Structure to design on (964 residues):
């Protein structure tokens, strides 16, 4: 079919329709333009404040590739075993520190999740009638989650001394804030009919939470907790910068003191651990979410 | 005896229940009728204290229900079982646990949250299920049952509360005719066999006439009729529903003849 | 039908035949005592917990008993001291009001630190363990045995005790740290910025932090956008390419922003630019993964519609997939901007620009009033950005929640 066989509109009608369309979309286009302009201005402003120097970046990019090249070990195929042994000369100490990192993440996640579990029911608008209690619980959780964990760790190192103790506490507090918010959102989205059914039988707050709320939120809680554990492993790996335990201390030292191959050795260990934990928690999460067995 | 005096509940400026006064003697089967939005549900929820009244008083024996709080309020709710239009079971718990939830007020929190029910409680729950032919479903998840089955589980839960009064908020509104009859018969049996007062919201005038000793008609939050079923003239029904009385009679709902009902409990 | 006495319990002896019910449902009424599997699991769980206490955490029954006795003595002593102080306060109350106030405060302080706090701690630990058990038990299908619950609980708690023991937790250390924290908290009030010169410095650093977060998020998202397609099954059907792209994302994500900051400092020197690059590096991986997931979950029907009109593969992506994923991506970018504002506050600790430098400096020099001022600044900024990004998300997408 040739295009000119399509029926043509009367030009005056066409003009009117076109004007109408343009008029209708003009406001949106204007908003888009203003938004785009604002974006460009903020980019320029931010670039100026953050001292972005593309020239320097490209001029020094060679040193980035050189750095990557430097930290990689020199391995020869014919002497690979001795090469690896040399590369991972400190593997005993690093493995222990890696284990400590995992422990920090585990204890921090468990303790933080327990706190978040208890507070989330207080922060949920559909369970707690007292606005004062809800407000207090929410602000407290917000404080715990907004202050970065490493800041908590810095303060706790002064109070509790060096070592993993401040690291665990910092991660636990931050986890409590982050999970508490997610948990309370889950609680706010539940079906309220079972809750009402339970209240009507004379059940108290604890029983209502246990039997009407918990069965509905359980799987989501477990899934969020596993996700958080993965995040916390990464968080625990940097706690060492401020002296709060884990493998971060050695990595920092290696980077600062230019022990090049150590950097790659430790980084590789961290990356493998994080990726492995990522895969593990992902499988566990799918199983938890998939197997919603009767409770 | 349940005594309601000048009970009022406002949502914003609108009064859902407006200055209602009623006396409900122990052991009676009272039907509350009226079109949706007439305040029937709110009235029942006020009695169970799921909502708090704006004004007025509810008394039960020498208990001032409107003044209760804390443990005393929970004890009142246990005495005043409620069943809902949407059953309000916990879908992800099994049937037996759902029924056992009716005993929560009678066991300590520390053990009940661990689901450590005594053999007595389990026997009671199973006996309640058994009496509604639901014993074989004890281990199924509540959400896997049909509406009629769920409502029977809900009645079993109400029964194990060993209540003095049973509130039923449109218990049959989401059920088919056969289950409607099963549920209404169950309520009648609870009333006649154990002398438990039943206060039941109903949409259908025919059902109300067939099952209830006494009807209370509500419109716009006020009581506009209070009497026996046969006192309810077409004129009153028209006022209640704001349309021809013939329209509100639901032809599909079976009206149970008295003889047949007696047989069902033999 | 005889007229019953009103009302009656449906489960009084008259109506309820317990024996008949138990006979009809024998499976519901196991013989008294534990099932063998449950008993074994309980034994293993308790054994594991005790072993981890004794072997790894080094808590012997004797030492534990001594510690409990010491704590009890301290509590009793604290009670006595508090009682004396309060009695003194009562005696002084008639005459010297300010002295009475002082005595009252010291009495209450003793009561809190030496009586209430240890008792609270002793109550919190068993309570938390109970909550943990209830939560683990909630996963059990009702009707099944508690063996698995007990085992999982035993493993979780044993690992917890091992962790606490290995990492050097002790009640004395926690107590000392807590009282230190109390002292710091008192010193933090009221928040104060020191001098006006410092205030200007702080405000500039805050601007730097915001600029780092903004640019880092934007650049990372822009770079990750095309690569997201490479990792999406429905956009690029080449298996090897997808695998390589995905593992690259994982690797980049696996290295923390702080580590990236350290690496980039070596390249472009100290300053906020290194911070921007650090955020770009780690978020590139995160965005790539999220974008590719968004692309993969996109509805296939619009793509088929475009292809059916004779459009190319590129057309299908542009008109079939892009309109679907753009809102999702925008929402994610806004969410990340907010969370990066928080990350950007910390990369200053290693010298990559922003407010973190001042924060860590003032903590090291124990200038607590400035610490609380800086934390307050961060809190307010994040709250403002949170509100703004929620509004923006709502305006652009018409929904409030992150996808």
């Amino acid at each position: 079919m040739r295009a000119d066989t399509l029926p043509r509109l009367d030009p005056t009608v066409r003009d009117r329709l076109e004007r109408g369309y343009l008029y209708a979309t003009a406001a949106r286009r204007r908003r888009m333009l203003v938004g785009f302009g604002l974006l460009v201005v903020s980019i320029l402003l931010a670039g100026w404040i953050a001292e972005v120097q593309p020239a320097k970046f490209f001029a020094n990019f060679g040193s980035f590739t050189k750095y990557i090249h430097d930290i990689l070990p020199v391995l020869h195929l014919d002497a690979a075993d001795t090469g690896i042994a040399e590369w991972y000369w400190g593997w005993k100490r690093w493995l222990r520190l890696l284990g400590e990192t995992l422990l920090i993440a585990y204890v921090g996640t468990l303790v933080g999740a327990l706190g978040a579990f208890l507070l989330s029911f207080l922060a949920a608008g559909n369970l707690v009638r007292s606005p004062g209690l809800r407000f207090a619980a929410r602000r407290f959780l917000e404080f715990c989650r907004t202050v970065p964990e490493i800041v908590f760790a810095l303060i706790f190192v002064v109070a509790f001394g060096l070592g993993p103790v401040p690291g665990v506490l910092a991660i636990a507090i931050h986890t409590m804030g982050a999970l508490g918010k997610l948990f309370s959102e889950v609680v706010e989205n539940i079906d309220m009919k079972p809750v009402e059914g339970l209240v009507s039988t004379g059940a108290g707050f604890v029983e209502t939470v246990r039997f009407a709320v918990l069965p509905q939120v359980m799987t989501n809680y477990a899934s969020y907790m596993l996700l958080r554990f993965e995040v916390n492993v990464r968080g625990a790996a940097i706690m060492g910068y401020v002296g709060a335990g884990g493998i971060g201390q050695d990595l920092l030292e290696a980077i600062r003191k230019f022990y090049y191959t150590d950097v790659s050795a430790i980084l590789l260990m961290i990356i493998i651990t994080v990726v492995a934990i990522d895969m593990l928690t992902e499988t566990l999460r799918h199983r938890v979410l998939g197997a919603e067995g009767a409770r | 005896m349940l005594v309601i005096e000048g009970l009022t509940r406002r949502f914003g400026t609108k009064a859902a229940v407006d200055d209602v006064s009623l006396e409900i003697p122990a052991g009676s089967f009272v039907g509350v009728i009226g079109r949706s939005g007439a305040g029937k549900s709110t009235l029942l929820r006020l009695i169970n204290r799921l909502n708090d009244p704006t004004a007025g008083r509810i008394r039960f024996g020498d208990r001032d229900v409107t003044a209760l709080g804390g443990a005393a309020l929970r004890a009142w709710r246990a005495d005043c079982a409620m069943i809902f239009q949407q059953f309000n079971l916990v879908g992800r718990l099994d049937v037996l646990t759902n029924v056992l939830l009716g005993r929560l007020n009678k066991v300590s929190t520390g053990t009940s949250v661990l689901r450590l029910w005594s053999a007595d409680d389990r026997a009671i729950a199973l006996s309640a299920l058994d009496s509604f032919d639901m014993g074989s479903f004890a281990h199924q998840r509540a959400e896997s049952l049909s509406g009629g089955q769920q409502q029977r589980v809900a009645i079993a839960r109400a029964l194990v509360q060993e209540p003095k009064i049973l509130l039923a908020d449109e218990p049959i509104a989401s059920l088919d005719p056969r289950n409607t009859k099963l549920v209404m018969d169950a309520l009648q049996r609870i009333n006649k066999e154990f002398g438990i007062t039943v206060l039941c919201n109903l949409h259908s005038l025919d059902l109300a006439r067939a099952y209830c000793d006494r009807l209370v008609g509500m419109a716009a939050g006020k009581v506009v009729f209070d009497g026996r079923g046969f006192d309810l003239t077409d004129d009153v029904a028209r006022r209640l529903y704001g349309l021809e009385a013939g329209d509100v009679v639901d032809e599909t709902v079976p009206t149970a003849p008295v003889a047949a009902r007696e047989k069902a409990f033999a | 039908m005889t007229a019953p006495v009103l009302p009656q319990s449906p489960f009084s002896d008259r109506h309820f035949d317990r024996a008949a019910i138990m006979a009809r449902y024998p499976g519901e009424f196991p013989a008294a005592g534990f099932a063998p599997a449950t008993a074994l699991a309980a034994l293993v769980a308790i054994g594991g917990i005790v072993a981890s206490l004794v072997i790894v955490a080094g808590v012997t029954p004797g030492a534990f008993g001594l510690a409990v006795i010491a704590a009890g003595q301290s509590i009793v002593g604290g009670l006595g001291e508090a009682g004396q102080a309060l009695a003194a306060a009562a005696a002084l109350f008639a005459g010297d009001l300010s002295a009475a106030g002082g005595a009252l405060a010291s009495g209450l302080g003793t009561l809190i630190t030496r009586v209430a706090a240890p008792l609270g701690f002793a109550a919190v630990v068993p309570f938390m363990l109970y909550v943990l058990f209830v939560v683990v038990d909630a996963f059990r299908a009702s009707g099944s045995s508690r063996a698995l619950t007990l085992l999982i609980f035993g493993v979780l708690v044993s690992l917890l005790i091992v962790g606490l023991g290995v990492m050097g937790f002790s009640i004395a250390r926690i107590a000392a740290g807590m009282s230190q924290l109390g002292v710091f908290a008192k010193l933090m009030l009221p928040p104060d910025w020191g001098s006006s010169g410092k205030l200007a410095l702080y405000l500039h650093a805050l601007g730097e932090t915001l600029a780092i977060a903004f640019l880092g998020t934007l650049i990372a998202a822009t770079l990750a956008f095309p690569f997201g397609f490479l990792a999406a099954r429905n956009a690029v059907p080449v298996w090897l390419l997808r695998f390589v792209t995905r593992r690259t994302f994982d690797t980049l994500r696996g290295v923390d922003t702080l580590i990236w900051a350290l690496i980039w400092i070596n390249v472009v020197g100290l300053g906020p630019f290194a911070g921007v690059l650090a955020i770009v590096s780690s978020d590139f991986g995160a965005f790539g993964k999220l974008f590719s997931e968004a692309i993969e979950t996109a509805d296939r029907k619009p793509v088929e519609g475009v292809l059916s009109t004779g459009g190319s593969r590129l057309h299908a992506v542009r008109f079939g997939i892009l309109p679907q994923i753009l809102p999702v991506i925008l929402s994610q970018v806004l969410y990340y901007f907010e969370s990066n504002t928080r990350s950007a506050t910390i990369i200053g600790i290693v010298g990559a620009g922003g407010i973190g430098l001042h924060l860590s400096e003032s903590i090291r020099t124990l200038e607590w009033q400035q610490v609380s001022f800086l934390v307050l600044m961060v809190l307010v900024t994040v709250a403002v950005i949170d509100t703004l990004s929620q509004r923006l998300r709502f305006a652009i997408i018409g929904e409030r929640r992150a996808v």
Remarks:
- Chain B touches chain A at residues 48, 50, 74-79, 81-82, 84, 86-94, 97, 101-102, 104-105, 109, 112-113, 139, 141, 154, 157-158, 161 (CB under 8 Å).
